[in-house]
Specification:
By secondary structure, the chain is α/β, with parallel strands linked by helices. Helix 5 runs parallel beside helix 11. It is globular.
Length: 460
């Protein structure tokens, strides 16, 4: 409230807005910075014990969908920290909240000492989640999506003791902790790790055979439940598979699964770490009309602070879930802004910005697919979770296209298992239509370049 603070904040935000104006589109690196930049990348790879996926070290400056790297290049960011930077880079409205947080007395908040902002954020999460009929009573903040999922499992095991097994979909991704690497259906992520948790997998939804896929999944689910009666504490459900390849499910499919789990008294955990804010409704379970099945819900990425939401039936005993850090003061302030923006109503629904951005990308992908079906298949995903299969769907061809996109000024990432795809998680809260069109233009040129290189290598 001090007028000196208000004046300083206004000056800082004015400077930010002014300097953001110099970023107008993708730009090549500055030659004079190349050697120092390469040296920094090499040193970072050595310090962290492994190289980076891209030669990407940010300068700390950006504007919306545009991000500047320390070599002076500017990229269109279509992956946003794998879905984290929902409002892009250097957003003035978000920065205003971060300035306020920087003036508070502590950097971190945690189990023992929190501010009223944590209360307000928790209440906001619950209000948004319950807006369409869910009955979630409690919210525990945490520092990562993996910890949100860990806490969800602890709540389920605590409630359903002595149950000691978990159910998940084939192709699932839940995190990389020792326990969650078992739920994650990728053996490469648990190589050399001990088996810490018994997990039974069932098939995910097949859009090409909805009825058959539902029956196959229910049959497999019943088989596991009958084989281990009373032993399953929870089933972790990704309603849109993220790392698995951007496969969305179906309401009837999930309702049938939810009904069976209810009948067998197995906790239903909706893993919304990647889907939060990216489907046509704030939560994917709201989009699919599954509010009545929400026992435990985990959120992350776009929310900045992660959280586990749960009904009173899963209220834990003292000390079961507790962390020194539940979030940085700045990330809690950012999360409050994000949840408030989600609640405004302009982002979701048929006319919301998520739907608009999705349609624009989907239309562009479909045009490219019709023109070059050998180069791009798809699109896949839902809302602002977008993916396509390039060329033969191999990891090698996907990586070549990703590298070509990066060199031309677009940052994307891969997803999928047997079939590798390129995925976009655009900064839907700030991206402009002309930036979507520019990304599609760069994609078309990149597809041409890689196709020509592949043809030359094969002698075609």
């Amino acid at each position: 409230a001090d007028p000196r603070v208000a004046e300083a904040k206004a000056s800082l935000l004015a400077a930010l807005r002014e300097h953001r104006g110099r970023l107008v589109g993708p730009k090549a690196a500055q030659p004079g910075l190349a050697l120092a930049y390469r040296d920094a990348l090499d040193r970072f790879a050595e310090v962290r014990g492994g190289g980076l996926f891209y030669p990407y070290l940010g300068s700390g400056f950006g504007s919306g969908a545009l991000v500047e790297l320390a070599d002076g290049s500017v990229k269109l960011d279509m992956i946003c920290g794998i879905g984290v930077h929902y409002f892009g880079h250097g957003d003035p409205e978000l920065s205003e909240h971060l300035i306020d947080a920087a003036l508070q007395d502590t950097v971190m908040q945690g189990n023992l000492q929190q501010t009223a902002a944590s209360l307000e954020l928790s209440a906001s999460f619950l209000a948004l989640a319950n807006d369409r009929g869910a009955a979630l009573d409690h919210c525990f903040l945490t520092t990562s999506g993996a910890m949100a999922n860990e806490n969800a499992l602890k709540l389920a095991f605590h409630r359903h003791a002595p149950a000691d097994r978990v159910l998940a979909f084939a192709g699932a991704f839940a995190g990389r902790s020792i326990a969650l690497s078992q739920v994650t259906d990728n053996p490469a992520y648990r190589l050399g790790l001990p088996t810490a948790l018994a997990v039974d997998f069932v098939p995910f939804y097949d859009a090409l055979d909805p009825d058959g896929s539902r029956e196959r999944t229910l049959s497999a689910l019943r088989g596991h439940l009958d084989r281990h009666p009373g032993r399953h504490a929870a089933m972790v459900l990704e309603l849109v598979q993220g790392e698995g390849g951007y496969y969305p499910g179906d309401r009837r499919f999930f309702e049938a699964i939810g009904s069976l789990l209810r009948e067998r008294e197995v906790a239903i955990v909706f893993d919304e770490v990647q889907t939060f804010g990216r489907t046509p409704e704030p939560f994917a379970f709201q989009h699919f009309g599954l509010d009545a099945f929400a026992d435990i819900v985990t959120v992350g990425k776009a929310s900045q602070v992660c959280a586990t939401l749960f009904t009173d039936a899963y209220r834990p005993g003292p000390g079961l879930i507790s962390q020194t850090f539940t979030g940085a003061t700045a990330s809690i302030a950012a999360a409050r802004y994000v949840v408030e923006r989600f609640a405004r109503g302009d982002l979701f629904g048929e006319a919301g910005r998520v739907a608009e951005v999705s349609r624009r990308f989907v239309d562009g992908f479909e045009e490219l697919s019709k023109a070059h079906p050998d180069r791009l298949r798809g699109p896949f995903g839902l809302g602002a979770m977008l993916a396509f299969t390039p060329f033969d769907g191999s990891r090698a061809s996907t990586r070549r296209l990703l590298d070509e996109l990066f060199s031309r000024g677009v940052v994307a990432f891969s997803t999928g298992g047997r079939v590798s795809r390129v995925r976009f998680l655009p900064p839907v809260g700030v991206i402009r239509d002309e930036e979507v069109d520019r990304v599609l233009e760069i994609l078309e040129v990149s597809l041409d370049t890689v196709a020509a290189a592949l043809a030359a290598e094969s002698g075609g």
